[in-house]
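The data are quoted verbatim for reference:
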Amino acid sequence: MKVKEFVKHRYLFFGLSVLVIAVGVVTMAVNGFNLGVDFSTGINISVDVVVSDSDTADSVAVRDRLRQLEVLAGETVYVQDAGTNGNLKSFVIKTKVPEVLGSDGVALEYSDAAVAINTAILAELADMYGDADLTTAEERNTYSLVDPTQSSENALMAALLALLVLVLILVYITFRFKIAYAVASIVALIHDVLIMLGVIALFKFEVNTITITALLTVVGYSLNDTIVVFDRIRENSGLLKDKPLATVINTSITQSLSRTIITSLTTLVAVLAIAIIASGDIKYFGINMIVGIIVGTYSSIFVASPVYLELTNLFVKKKARKKGHSGPVVVAASGEVYKEERDIDYDNIEIPRIERKLKRKPKK
């Protein structure tokens, strides 16, 4: 088995990650986030329109038409196709609520402005699809208003949920492995989330509950990849306990590489189809997932394991110094000082191929 030296250039990959994250943080500071209705004041509208066989009720056409409404004052409108039931075509429409002036030229109250926007949207849809009976259209229309207090509560709950997920991950991996693995996993997950947030801010994707779902999904995907590698490192640390830890990590990543690549590619095919075929929030979910899978795969190989190596090196070398060991040291897979670095011939380290033998019961 040809072992690839993944951790040899770890500082180069650390630098690359820091650079990308720094660009993302600057982008977030400059651009901010395009907060959707869920995390800012706005309105969610569900409406059915009557269509005939000759009508083509298209969410893009509806969106382009609604963006021209004066009451929306240039606000971005998101329109999602919610399916067809007989001759009724369903749409979900989301938009922020800008300032709307009444007939007297005075700005309407927030809730009154939302009603005015909802009425204008209904009238526009009735004009597009020939449903002139606005009263009947209103019976098929519901809308929910997200006020400033509710949007703040949504943002707080999302932040608390993300924090809870990280804490539970830390506890789980500490229990299953040990604290160094847990800290390395958290560092990799924060790395993934920061890069995804930077991309979202750069391209001004809307941040809504679907975005949070994508982020948490990527966290789970990346964590699964990382645990697979860590599980192999733990196993190889027992089998190759006299080898340098860096060599054991390289061996473990090499053994897991084909599984990681195949899993990532097959998942990418699925989310790529979503990004191409779907529309609205689901399309952006697919795009966020594409970015997350690429970043998550990268971090499980080039971030999580090298961070674990650095943490273990730091702990063991500090322990060795306390025992009076001087000079450079190399940490073994067993967690002890291997030997002085100058005595290791890295070119001739042989890594045995690890075979798992099935335990069979002897025949009677």
Notes: The beta strands are 34-35, 42-50, 77-85, 88-96, 141-146, 206-207, 329-331, 337-340. Residues 245-277 form the longest helix (33 residues). The chain has ten helices and eight strands.
